[in-house]
Specification:
Blueprint (H helix, E strand, L loop, with lengths): L3 E6 L3 E7 L9 H11 L11 E7 L6 E8 L10 E4 L5
Length: 90
């Protein structure tokens, strides 16, 4: 991972965004999943129903490749995370 940004969006929750070389976001999936274990417990300050999103982008933030989303109150359980991959259609 090269750049990591985060922001709080009132009414939604928190978004963590990271860059990876184009086509490599899925390759760092294991590292992202490990990082989620450290991110999730720090989210206790979020309001009920707010979410956590972790988004992997191509190097210049022009297109996303990988998104993890969970509700703050269930985020400690890896099974509660939705995972989205943005793959080109052939």
């Amino acid at each position: 991972m090269y750049t990591v940004l985060n922001t709080y969006l009132p009414g939604y929750g928190v978004a963590f965004m990271f860059t990876a070389k184009s086509g490599y976001a899925a390759a760092v999936q294991h590292e992202v999943e490990r990082a989620l274990r450290f991110i999730a417990p720090t989210i206790s300050s979020l309001h009920e129903g707010e979410k956590i999103a972790v988004v992997g982008y191509h190097g210049s933030f022009d297109a996303w490749e990988l998104i993890y989303v969970s509700s703050a109150n269930t985020s400690v359980d890896p099974a509660t995370w939705d995972v989205y991959l943005n793959r080109p259609r052939r």
